[in-house]
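ESCALATION

Customer reports they have been waiting on this structure for their group meeting. Please prioritize. Original submission:
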Amino acid sequence: MPEPVIASPRPRVLSGMRPTGKLHLGNYMGALANWVKLQNGAQYDCYFFIADWHALTTDYADTSNVAQNTLDVMLDYLAAGLDPAKSVMFLQSKVLQHAELNLLLGMITPLGWLERVPTYKEQQENITGKDLSNFGFLGYPLLMASDILLYQPKFVPVGNDQTAHVELTREVSRRFNQFYKLDGREVLPEPQVLLTPSPKLPGTDGRKMSKSYGNTILLTDPEPEVRKKLKTMVTDPARVRRTDPGDPDKCPVGDLHKVFSTPETQAKMYAGCRSAGIGCIECKGWAADALVQVLEPIQARRASFTVPQVIEILEDGSNRARVRAEQTMHEVRSAMQMNLTASAAK
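Update from on-call: job pushed to the front of the queue and completed.
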């Protein structure tokens, strides 16, 4: 029998990120800030992990950066305000039950379900220079489903672009429960989507902030770097000359103001831009002021942790996650009649 888990009366939530290196403001506003709110609201039993095995689905040929990237992501988790006393933070590869459940669910998952996941074809088309015709890349949505179902969560906090993965998870759950039950009950409950409020956050080139575009503002960028990046940021194309009026609703810098600036600064920005009373350089300076205010406490928290502390937190969280994961796997094995014991032998 697995080690008993102290049951929480709160509904469980689970989410994670691939370790692609230091996180940027898009990661923060799209996920991390919401995770911190979920944790601090004390309404949910929170599990957040780093999906290092998922990094291998595309970067299998060069794994030299995975360990450092994992440390950087964990530091950014802590810097953003995730607290190991309030949330279970763990490393996917430290909980081998992820692989076991993935293998078992792979036995019942139709190939067509994986091929129709929208991001499968999108990434094959958009990620050039890498051979993605491998089993791991095709199966990564099922590994993601296994990551979720292993903890039997009530909710998965995601943005709109990730809902297809949760729907696949629900389909896999239904199929498993159709085949296998434990004492007449379902073992893998269908998780619900908990949509993450995700404001429009453009990168310095006006496109969605993404490392693949090279247009990010990192959570670790010092103030001079933030101001340097903002100075080169694209603006409303209608403002060719300083005297041309602009429209903040058509300007990437205006989008940053809407997320980070105070109502007073936004009012000045709207009035000044539309009347050509201010230039883009001044407007960008105000945006940089707002970003620096957000980033300073994050960077101060990051600097307060040492690498040994981060590793210890990950080890402790992974141990806690492993206990919870084994409880699920004991039920899965029993439902599938794969727990061979002396009492079961005939």
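Sent to customer with the following note: The first strand starts at residue 12 and ends at 17.
Escalation resolved.
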